[in-house]
Every structure is written in structure tokens, then in C-alpha cells.
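CHAIN AND CONFORMATION:
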Amino acid sequence: MNFFNLCLEIILSNDIEYKCDATVKLYNQISSKDCTLSFDKTLVRSIPEPGRPDKPELVHPLEVPKRGIGTTIGHAGLFHALAHIEFNAINLALDACYRFQSMPIEYYRNWMSVAKDEVYHFSLLNEHLATLQYTYGDFTAHTGLWDMVYKTECDVLVRMALVPRVLEARGIDAVPELRKKVLHIKDTKGAAILEIIHHDEITHVKYGDIWFKYLCDKRNLDYTDTFFSILEEYSAPKIRGAFNRESRKQAGFSDVELDKLLLR
């Protein structure tokens, strides 16, 4: 079985259960000492849109209703939005494997580990939605989560800079603040799920940091200069709201980078 073909097959699947189960199975295969997968390069196809179920209906980000979490529908809407992020993150991690087919084996093991974690997070969130009498697909969701794939498909260095070290790093900023709000409405189960997600996302950003620096070393590039050059070239979003310095340092950011990020 060709690993890259299997990644593509899972990305394109519209079936949630298959996508989740096949991702975990592929992670187990690649992480086994007796791995039987082949890593023969394939022609990388453009993927206009990953496979997804008919629902949720996707709309422009500005069209997604904003609701306070003090109501049942607002509470459920928050967890639906998080489930949507995690579902898309499965595809993002698989795409990091499929699109860049000349990396060391440990790179693919790391990103399949991320994909497996995202499956777990999605499952936890969807199960929690069920306790609120909703399921994934019951709300609209936005279309912007796959855009960064197109922006970064040209170069694995750019992907490592902008997905883990920007998008997921914003997650480790935001989740602790969300957890406080969820605890305020006495949703202890939801808060516990957010704690798991926060812990795992630090590891995901760390993987991005490791491979970003690996690629910089191979190309004789300075880490900080290269990171900020990519941020400007690709018009990466600036930091807004909470900034989790401690978690970002655990994930590999330097104090120099963090100080500079706050000044952008």
C-alpha cells in the first residue's frame, strides 16, 4: 500500500466515519515497527476541496451567526465551531503528508500523529454536542479553513511556518480563554475536553517548529528572519486578543520571536 495514495483517499472521502477510522488505522500502520507501507512518490493532485459530508452548510465567515454561550444554542454553537475546526484539521494534517513527498519518515509519523489527535478531538466534541441535543452539521460553518492549504502548497517550509506556527499557535492562545468561559457556565465536561485539546495542540505546534527549523538548517536560513519574512510575504494574520507566551515557548518559540510577534 502506498502511503501517499492512502492519504489522498482519506482526504477525498466524504464519509466522516471512514475518514476518522482510516486515519487512525493509517497512523497505527506508520507508527508500527513492522510498517508495511511503501513511500513511492505519486503525482500530487490539486485538491480544490477535501471530502466532507453534505452538512454543515458552508458560508462566508462573516455569515456565521455570533451567539453568546449563555444560551443552549450558543453553547452548542461554540462546540460545533470547534468540531468543524478539528474536522478540517484532520484533512490539513493528511495534506501535510500527501503534498510533501520528500521528507524523512519521522515527518510523516509526526503528522499522522497529529491527524490521529484531531480525530480524537473531533470525536470528543461531537459526543459533547450530543449531550446538548445537537450533532456536527446542525449549524452553518465557514469556508476559510482550507484556504491556507492553497497558500502554502508550494513549499513545505512555508507550510510549517504558517499552519502550525501561526494557525495552530493561535489555537493555543485562544483555547485557555475559551475554557474559562465554558467553566463560567459550569460545563465541566466541555472544559475538560478543551484542556485535552490545548495540551495536544502544543505538541502539534512543536512538530511544526521542529520541521520548520530542520528545513531552515538544510537551506542555511536564519529561523527568526525566515519566519517573519514568510509572515510578511503571505500576509499572515497579526496577533489579536490573548497571547499565551508560556505555551508558545513550550512549543518552541523563542523570546525574541515572541517579543517581535507582539510588535507586528
The chain has a mean pLDDT of 94. The first strand starts at residue 58 and ends at 59. The chain is about 65% helix and 0% strand.
